[in-house]
Amino acid sequence: MNINSYLQRVSNQVTRRIAIKCASTVPMYPVMEFPKCGGTWVSRMLAESLALPFAEYSRLPVAMPCVVHGHWKYNPGFNNMTFLMRDGRDVMVSFYFHFTRQVQNPNQKNSNIFIDRLRNLIGPDADPLDVRTHLPVFIEYLFENPVGCRQNWRDYNLSWLNHPNVSYIKYEDLRVDCVSSMNTLVSSLVGEKLNEDRVGHAVEHFSMKRMTGRNPGEEDKGSFIRKGVVGDWVNHFTKESAEVFDRLAGDALIELGYESDNSWVDRCGDS
Questions:
Q1: Residue-level pLDDT at 107
Q2: Which residues share a beta bridge with 266?
Q3: Which fold would CATH assign to domain 3-86+153-212?
């Protein structure tokens, strides 16, 4: 681990400790997620809506009201918490493309380690851009070796469910009606409804169009913000991928409300 990564980890740990120990005196607003669920996006919109600074990239915040973002484990001492959920199947696909960003964009910084891991997994001569072929073994790998979080998608999401002082929001709801979803979130956190124009401005300010120049659905496989849509997993999952994910986390899909049972596996064909 290089010195920057070490200092970032220390900063993140201290930030978490402040959020637990000073929850009643320093009104921080932590946004938690499993990686690749849109947590940075939500944090930016929330900070803009509340007119607070966003302590991005694990920077140690001064003891002041602010929005912070992370992938922390739940602690009963937390307050003002937001937990963001996203369909784990879309998360797997998003992570796969994250690993191949360096192939799509050779100038992409800090991506070599990911493509090296992927090539070690699928073989040096395999085509890493053949998502449908390699996704089943990649899903297995990511559940055994979570990236950016100490728990896999299933365990992390289930550990955060049904806790007091936590406001829950889904990535999918944000894509349907972002302003309404953010208004609901802000009202839950501060106990009152803010001016809708203020929240609407925050949503527009950090829209995909404004941030990337692309509309949701317009794909750039070399970008951190690749596509910005819901349900893209159906374009990449084979029956084998579905069976692997169902075995590892099918119960969580049902618990989180993404499926009512596991019949989705049989509907997932290879065409």
A1: 63
A2: none
A3: Rossmann fold (3.40.50)
